[in-house]
Specification:
alpha+beta; 3 helices
């Protein structure tokens, strides 16, 4: 579908535009193609789909007793909408840095949810100039990116391109 040069232009331009956009969505036109990437909430992926975040249980705001199976390492996480008990994974309990990073990521996931990205490749009709969809690629389960990096955005774009 694309030449190597076109792929490089799509990858680099989309990555830069996604990083510059508020919602990590962007589009680029290359020759007769228009390629768009859209970030949407991933309504199918939850924390319970992964073991790396530990366990989470809903709690009342002033509930002091831990849920069954939660030990002394359990902490409360307060979000805009709710309060949760969080039991960190056992393999990070003795690592303060990993514990802190996992706590922040788990809180962000509870607050913002996972993201999905969809790439659409459309071809411009030579006679009328209208676009028709040629290919679609999607990936979900991406952690929230409060501070997106070029590396993370490139990973998304490259994965979507490979999946076309």
């Amino acid at each position: 579908m694309f030449t190597d040069y076109q792929l490089a232009v799509v990858r680099d331009t989309l990555s830069e535009r996604m990083l510059d956009s508020y919602d990590l969505s962007a589009s680029v036109e290359v020759d007769a193609f228009k390629v768009t990437v859209e970030q949407i909430p991933d309504e199918h992926t939850t924390l319970s789909d992964y073991d790396c975040y530990g366990e989470v249980a809903y709690a009342r705001r002033f509930q002091s007793e831990r849920p069954a199976g939660f030990d002394g390492a359990a902490r409360k996480i307060h979000t805009r909408d709710a309060t949760y008990w969080w039991q960190p994974p056992s393999y990070i309990k003795d690592d303060p840095l990993a514990l802190s990073q996992t706590y922040v990521m788990t809180k962000d996931i509870l607050e913002y949810g996972f993201s999905a990205f969809t790439m659409r490749v459309m071809r411009k009709c030579e006679c009328c100039g209208a676009y028709t969809e040629e290919a679609v690629s999607s990936v979900g389960g991406w952690e929230p990116m409060t501070q997106p990096t070029m590396t993370a955005v490139l990973d998304i774009v490259e994965y979507l391109i490979e999946s076309l």
